Structures are given as structure tokens and as C-alpha cells.
Amino acid sequence: MNKLLERHPIGTVITFLPLWIFLYFALQPFADAIVSLSGLPPSEQITEAVRFFVFETPKVLLLLTIVVFAVGIVRTYFSPERTRKILGGKSLFVGNVLASMLGIVTPFCSCSAIPLFIGFVETGIPLGVTFSFLVAAPMINEIAVVLLFGLFGWQTALLYVSTGLLIAITSGYVIGRLKVERFVENWVFEVHTTTSALEETVPSFRDRIQSGFEAVKDIVGRVWPYILIGIAVGAGIHGYVPENFMASLMGKSAWWSVPVAVLIGVPLYSNAAGIIPIVHALLEKGASLGTTLAFMMAVIGLSLPETIILRKVLKMPLIFIFVGVVATGIIIVGYVFNFVY
Prior knowledge:
The chain has 341 residues and is mainly α. The protein has helices at residues 2-7, 9-25, 27-38, 45-74, 80-87, 92-105, 113-123, 127-139, 142-152, 154-177, 186-190, 205-240, 243-250, 257-265, 272-284, 289-301, 304-310, 316-340.
């Protein structure tokens, strides 16, 4: 298979795309057939939980594969060095907008937080612009978008991307206006990263296709266990948790539900693959959209590992400002959507 991809990446895409389409549209009959053959009694809790798991698992994996492949190609156009060049010399607000949009398509994880942060600071990119990137990159990722699209539809996925961008832009702008450079560790401004004097090699279209396949192998290969765990938990909620219970705990009538959901979500560590199937089940059981969206964004956008790693370049006051500003933005978004929807 690997040799086939290396020799004929474009031909492999043409071959597997019809197969992907066939499998995706055959999911519902497949799930119904599995439940029917299982001999489980209809309309029972265990039956509904099994149906949820059997249908959602392949659906999520198929959607994730196609979107990660596309994003893997897009990312070949945005190396970290090119990203720094795009953001360099921009005014605060324009930089916040550009940084937030680039955060969606640029590779980022907790382990790359420090080198990216140092590179941005050394290039002269304003601190607030850097924070817009740091917020948008983990929060608005391809896994979250594809899972929301597959489970809830394009409207919810668009809502997630729009609110995530708004939080990233606003948070970075506020932090930039606060002039908190004194809370960055002194050694960061003394570091001089080395960049190659040679021009970056421009990948061929064949190389970009290959990068898409490598992204699928890497990302899907790492997150599928979280997907299975998340869908399994979601199936349990779907089949066994009473609707009245979730409505009382995370419904619109509970005014305190949004800040509590954010407070619970901030210290938790999970990725989108594990948390969104649970979000799906919570909404089905009566949890409000705003509260659930706030919980999801807090878990994904304010992960504990990223915060701990950033402590190496940020002093504690700036860590608290960063978490506080982003969390406040998430809470406001939660209340707004509880009011509108």
C-alpha cells in the first residue's frame, strides 16, 4: 500500500474516492442490519446505545479521513516560516484576524507552542497577534470541524468555526492592548533562532497529495482510540441517561451551567475526537447548545498540557490573563447561544 501511494498518489485518490462515497452512503443500512442481526429487543436502551455506536463510529472515521487528507494538502502551503512572514509587520487588529485564520490551517500542537512562540516574538510579531494564533490553532482544528459537521450538520460546524475565530481575534486583541510584554520570560527576547538562507523548496502537486496521505496516517492513526472511547461514552449517554437529568444540569434554565461547564472543561485534557461524540449525546439528552459549546471549547482550547508548556515562556500573571480572557470569551459565547437558540 505504501509503495502504491509513493508511485501513484493521484491514481490512488481517484481509485479510493468512489469507494469512500459508497461506504459513507451505506452506513445507515449497515447499522440497521447489524442491530437486526444482533437479536437485541427493539426500542430498548441497550439497542439504542449499540445502534448509536455502530452507526457513528464508521461515519466519524470516514469523514475524518477525507477532511484530514484535504487539510494535509492545504498545510503544505503554510510552513511555520511562511506563517511568520505573513504575520510580520501587520497592525494589531489586522494581525489578530490573519493569525486566527492561519491558526486553522497551520500545524500546531502543545509540543510546538514554545518554538512557535519564540519564532513569532523574535520576528517582531505583536504579542496579542501571537496569542490569537495560539488560541485559534488548537481550538479550531480539522478534527473538531469534521466531527461537528458529521454529527450535527454544516450549520453547527460553521457556528463553531465562527465563534472560535471571534474568541481568538478578541482574546488576542485584548491581550495586545493590555501591554503585558513584561510578563514574558526575559530569555525569550534574547533567543535568536536560526533560519536557513536558502529558499524554501516548493512541493510538487504529487508531493502535496503524498502529504495528504501522510496526514491521514499520522492523525487518524493517533486519534482513533479517542474516537472509539468518545463514541462509546456518547452511546452510553444516548441509551441510558434520562433527558430530564441533562436538561436540569446543562439546560437553559440553569443560569450557572455555562460558567460551571467552562470551569470543569479547563482542567480536563481531551482532544476533539474524544469530546465531540460526548457533546452529541449531551445535546440529544436535553443539554443546551450554548452550555455544551462552552464546555467543548474549554476542553479543546484551554488544554492543561498546553498551559503547562507555555509556562516555560510566560510568567504566571500572563498565564492567568491568557486563561481568564479566553475563558471569559467562551462564557459569553455560551450565554449568547443559549439566548438565541
